From TrEMBL, chains A, B, C, D:
One of its GO terms (biological process) is inositol biosynthetic process. Belongs to the myo-inositol 1-phosphate synthase family. It comes from the Bacteria. Residues 217-321 form the Myo-inositol-1-phosphate synthase GAPDH-like domain. This is Myo-inositol-1-phosphate synthase. One of its GO terms (molecular function) is inositol-3-phosphate synthase activity. It comes from Jiangella rhizosphaerae.
Length: 384, 384, 384, 384
């Protein structure tokens, strides 16, 4: 297999920039594969596309350049400054493939979707790519309400034809991607392909997608500690979580409306794993000083034999963009392979990567790993 | 199935006392099953013996009474003081079934083993028990050296016949237990049934055993966090561990010789899980002030994509006896069932409970759980 | 000096109950003075009243008895259950001295204040007390707004005469206390004696008071760590604080209006100590499971030489009532002594005990200690 | 005042290199004074020498260059890589003023001391300096034994004349420094000027010195938290400390003999502050992976009112060289000023900077600060 393109929604954001730098660095043998799940033998067994031929493009509403953004990120310790310098030329080339994102108030959503679809097709054709994976790494949007126009594909098409704008921004991109036959990765908790009308379109078009809301840090830890308590019959009484982060994501999440999506998907898994609701606050706070680094603190209060109360606490100090970027590459490869072998709609086995796994209610990481490995084994045989 | 006896080595220690109190409390409907793995449906499926008919006895070298020890433990917060009061009569009855342990320098090991074996048989006969499970919860001993007399059963028998004393204390009990046809649980890291001569005896006698060194706290956490890093291809660079504890176990482990057993089995699993050795100290410190409570702190330094360094730390504040006691009951039930269905020698599927699983090199908790559940499913059908 | 009474506002709350139990236990030689600042020689030098003759009474709006509340607190680990049992008789006697608190909607504030004043006078007379110290340990109220009727004593008296109800509940008690010539301790962040009209009354009546909002845990730590960073010229960039607590105080603070008082006084000191505003969230969360225990976690991000970023975090696991109770006894003794030696109005040197020290802008604990010790030395000579 | 020289023992070590880079950066207006106590107004009041004219030289036994070492440190995050690049020329110039250190086995200690003394005099003369402050930042040595030849200056001189080698390495440098009339800073716990014979020499020569073992992180925190517990009459029951570090200091301290000096001085202060011995381990572990960064974790278990047990834990994540370097500059300025105003022998008021303050048993940081500020005020008037 060859010729995969990545099309980022939010192409100059922290995650897209780190992913692009990483892709270029790996290809230039300036960096290894640490953090890339798709390089583990159990996952590589799926027959995944090489990173060598991957072309990057995308949409972006913000000003600036990939090179400038890479410098800022490296100054913040996300990757070594030398990488930004050495790869400056490649980053400029990638930057030229970035198109202006869809801005509110410029024409109808129908027009915007047509434009995005055309740009995706043009990108695929121009570079002779077998397939283009669209990856949403833009700012988190609020949850989509219960809008009639999003309930069915027919209702959506009618609303768009009527000049209405019912789609959340992320869902507009997903709609356009599916129309262009592009697989999709919903890396954020934004509605994206999850609104019913758009989800239906993916099935109709026969394109697979993965989502949503990548688990990169504190939630990842929860999905191994939660099962531990459950397997040992220890009763979790409260689980309090605090996330402090300073990057662009933090700023977006300082708006409670946007944070609602994130908090909902974060709280999700624990109750499912433990089999009962668990008390305790879940905070996401924007602390600009922390930059691209996130510090999360969790306190778990649990009860053991004869009612004895005990506790566990952990502090996670991670660099979000650095944790996210290799997963983007993993998901691009997996979704591309899923497309190649004919999968369509949400792939539940990719839930391993997500806080809110589409088409799955499995949250325990080891169960998700088993499912992923099994999928990869089948994909390796061309049968999923 | 009915009529199971538990015979503790170290019958008035913290773990045995808490287990005895818990068993009596559960039977009197004064306490529930929190912390008991054998009550989870996947494990109960094995067809485990009820706790209702279980009789407790044991050996003990220390003075005192179960009732007194229960009072001390409840004052230290291990269980509610009311339990010690209400169960005082039952504890006195159990205390009367405790026999003096084997003291060094009183006769030959042959004589001591004969005495223990006779006492086990007498206990089983007197109470009309189908089987008696011997559980070693006595103080940790140093690792057994490479002694010729322990290399084969024949060599051991010859040495004992010659009046020699080659057996570590824990192994003497295991030897006597197997001679009496009793299944065995090696709850501590002491050599016990793991010396080759004694291990061979178990097979010859057709009795199953489980071991060794129950994982109750910090190591338990390691065996879920370690796989998390591995599944995400994050490179653990150092893992530093500190265990502060004040109970009797802490005092024993303040002696570096005894701690050697413990430290060896604790360090064991992580390297196996990650696939490479990991730097970092592993301390076990005796802090009398902490009583039966243990505080462990771990710092994990890891590397992600493009070499970015991140870290995670956790603090575990647990009550060791309270965490251990329900596992003792679980293991008694499982080993009794294994005996009933004809298993013999170390049962690798019981590795779920141990830091140093006998006959197994699986350390990841979820893998161990899968193996345990599978064994229980087979045992439920009478076929292991 | 002899004959001091304590009159609690919130006499069956956690703090008042723990204080009462502690006072009785110390007097019966069942407990020592751990946690009591007034027993340190530098403070005792003030010539403080003995605890032996202290009589306890108070107001309470809630149902129940001191004895019942003591049982609940001891079950939650605040003090040994045996104390509640042994002191049951004394607690019943104390309970009989508790009067119904002022309930909203029962008559005018003038009538309520007159009733409270009369009860304070009656308590003092009946027990032949030299002085009665009123201590507010009731639930935290929202900040008082900028109300004209609270601006001056004359305006307040006119409003009360006119049948209006301008006073926050805590201020009504302070007003009545000052009218009765009773010194006062504002142990919570409620407005109490701090509204201008009531503060003026204290001066007019010549009674001293101390406040407000006792620092018992996380804030206490801040007031020693903050000066450390300042003295070392390290630049604190952000300080994030999370307080998880489950007691009655937690429940009250789950209401954002009430929490506003608390959060304002907590945030107060740090900026003053560091000399510049500091970024970072300050959360107070109600986690019922935690009972009377509070867990606080703070993350301090700071910058050192050449711009290097470093961090410190701490977790405080304390029992709020247990930390507060000895300070109540300390403050009663100190305020009583202040009254005896003729002090009037807020005593700035008692700021050592408070998050929001009245008549003082000193927050660094060691500076506050110096001031307290100096006051005690002067009081020991009868001259403050 | 003008013309101060710094002469480092260990001139290419992490601390000396960071100090040199910092000094040059400040002088070139490339960096500010964060972390420098001597820039706080209360300390600057002493009338301290400017950093502008300071010349750096020193002894070093290791190979390499300052420039190379600066590159390594900046790669490890100790300071921005750009500084090492910009200052490369200045670092080369400084490097040329570094002389080979005293190596064991090359001539007698008398000869070595004469050589060092001559080099110090030459450095002072060549650069026309008013005074040269010798700063020991070399590897920690074991404690000096109870050696007769070190007991008095006369005994020492006799032994040196007899060709003996009784002096620890650090003390040989201090001896030579005092002979040359140079003030001295014992930045490490090595014996240095503290052996009686050398200490006597300082007094005889009329030169001041400061020491020993700078408190930069975990111990610093202890000296503010310890007094907090004491001032609140809370009883510290155990205080457990773990220090994980990967730099050169860590490697030296991996040798238990060398660590003995460090551990002794670290444990010192707490007992003095609390007024009683405190249980709990104190570990210093070498974890190479951590580089120049140190992570320390402390668990404090304490008892409050009515015997209630509580705890506090903190984690300190600091860069040792970055914390140490500004203190070196502070101490150089203060010791130079002390020399100028005629102080002689150990200056107890400089204990603020040290774990094991010479000629002082004050450990509480705020008490030390008071003493320092008072000294500076007097020095500002020319009278200490």
């Amino acid at each position: 297999m060859s010729g995969v393109g990545i099309w980022f929604i939010g192409a100059r954001g922290s995650v897209a920039t780190t992913t692009t730098v990483g892709l270029l660095a790996i290809r230039s043998r300036l960096a290894g594969h640490t953090g890339m799940v798709s390089e583990l033998p159990e996952v590589a067994a799926a027959g995944l596309p090489s990173l060598d031929g991957v072309v990057v493009g995308g949409h972006e509403v913000a000003e600036g350049t990939l090179g400038k953004r890479a410098e800022e990120l490296s100054a913040g310790g996300v990757f070594p400054p030398a990488l930004a310098t050495v790869l400056a030329g490649d980053l400029t080339a990638a930057d030229e493939r970035i198109r202006p994102g869809v801005a509110a108030g410029h024409g109808t959503q129908r027009e915007a979707a047509d434009r995005v679809e055309a740009e995706l097709r043009a990108f695929r054709d121009e570079h002779g790519l077998d397939r283009v994976v669209v990856v949403d790494v833009s700012s988190t949007e609020p949850p989509a309400g219960d809008v009639p126009a999003l309930a069915t594909l027919a209702a959506l098409e009618a609303a768009l034809d009527a000049g209405e704008s019912p789609l959340p921004g992320s869902s507009l991109y997903a709609y356009a991607a599916f129309r262009a036959g592009c697989p999709y990765v919903a890396f954020t908790p934004s509605p994206g392909p999850r609104v019913p009308a758009v989800s239906a379109l993916a099935l109709e078009q026969g394109v697979p997608w993965a989502g949503s809301d990548a688990k990169t840090g504190e939630t990842l830890v929860k999905t191994v500690l939660g099962p531990m308590f459950a397997m040992r019959a220890l009763k979790v009484r409260s689980w309090s979580s605090v996330n402090l982060l300073g990057g662009g994501d933090g700023q977006t999440l300082a708006d409670p409306d946007n944070a609602a999506s994130k908090i909902a998907t974060k709280a999700n898994g624990l109750e499912s794993i433990l089999g009962h609701p668990v008390d305790g606050p879940l905070h996401i706070d924007y602390v600009p000083d922390l930059g691209d680094w996130k510090t999360a603190w969790d306190l778990v209060s649990f009860e053991g034999f004869l009612g004895t109360r005990m506790s566990m606490q952990f502090t996670w100090s991670g660099c979000d963009s650095s944790l996210a970027a290799p997963l983007v590459l993993d998901l691009v490869r997996l979704v591309a392979r899923a497309h190649e072998v004919g999968a369509s709609g949400p792939v539940p086995e990719f839930g391993f990567f997500f806080k809110d796994p589409a088409a799955s209610d499995v949250h325990a990481l080891s169960r998700q790993w088993d499912a992923l490995v099994s999928w990869c084994e089948r994909a390796g045989r061309g049968a999923v």
